[in-house]
Specification:
The chain has 273 residues and is an all-alpha fold. The protein has one domain. It is 78% helix and 3% strand. It has 9 helices and 2 strands; from the N terminus they run ααααααββααα. It has a two-stranded antiparallel ribbon. Helix 4 (75-101) packs across helix 8.
Length: 273
């Protein structure tokens, strides 16, 4: 276990500064490209959770890349994708709840067509939300830093608080290792980041409370994203989506919370500001 934790820390110590440097210093095309490559990597791993041949996996990954190229050409379509993503993650929360109450060995979600569409609804809205947030004047870069800190902080808080105090299982049929105490730790971290984030974004006093609530909702959705990926991995009979990141598994294992949180945070920020 110590070895796994050490790998997680080392991997995070390398990746986190690289991502933050891209967000803070990168221009819009570079950020779009960087997140686009990440999205295609997630699409490749997602296709691996289904029983697809190599050609099908390559075709699916390319389809995601083509859709990402099409989104900037139609700004209204980008916002539609983000809204679709928000709706999907609300639905997936209900899906996880139902699966916890009544697990299936073979679920209708394993259908190739459904699996294909769900993959699009996961990665494309997240990419659109992150890229469009970065493009917002004055708040774009700070907003992206905040959402990354929320997801990373929630993951860290849940991991350590869950290991130290976790007793009550959050969703034993989906992800046995997660506990309600871990979720509490994640939300506690979110409170701190929310108040600091409100100061960084210079949110007016009347909207600070709403922003902190948005940060808590964002963290809750990141937990939903984690559980949703765990549900699909359980259906596929695998532990990790890949082996690219030591201590974390694959790309999708590392960013499942982010891809769920990004559309919700973007839409909520638009309402508050």
């Amino acid at each position: 276990m110590v070895g796994t934790l050490t790998k997680r820390i080392l991997t995070a110590a390398i990746l986190a500064p690289a991502v933050l440097a891209l967000v803070v210093y990168g221009n819009s095309p570079l950020v779009a490209l960087g997140f686009g490559l990440l999205a295609m990597g997630c699409a490749w791993e997602w296709s691996g959770l289904s029983v697809w041949k190599l050609a099908s996996r390559l075709s699916y990954t390319i389809s995601v890349g083509l859709l990402l190229c099409a989104v900037p050409l139609m700004p209204n379509l980008a916002h539609l994708w983000i809204m679709v993503g928000g709706v999907w993650w609300c639905f997936s929360a209900a899906l996880v709840f139902r699966y916890q109450a009544r697990p299936y060995h073979r679920h209708w979600l394993n259908s190739a067509a459904v699996h294909t569409v769900i993959g699009w609804m996961m990665v494309i809205p997240a990419w659109a939300a992150l890229v469009h947030l970065h493009q917002q004047p004055d708040i774009g870069r700070a907003g992206l830093v905040i959402i990354f800190l929320l997801v990373w902080g929630a993951d860290t808080g849940a991991y350590f608080i869950g290991r130290a105090f976790g007793k009550r299982k959050l969703s034993s049929n989906v992800s046995p290792g997660k506990t309600w105490e871990g979720v509490g730790g994640a939300l506690l971290v979110g409170l701190v980041i929310g108040w600091v984030g409100a100061w960084l974004l210079r949110i007016d006093l009347g909207s600070v409370f709403l922003f902190v609530i948005l940060c808590e909702i964002t963290i809750a959705m990141s937990v939903v994203g984690d559980l949703t990926e765990s549900l699909f991995k359980r259906q596929s009979g695998v532990k990790d989506s890949g082996r690219l990141l030591p201590g974390h598994g694959g790309l999708l294992d590392r960013v499942d919370g982010l891809i769920a949180a990004a559309p919700v945070f973007f839409l909520g920020l638009g309402v508050i500001l």
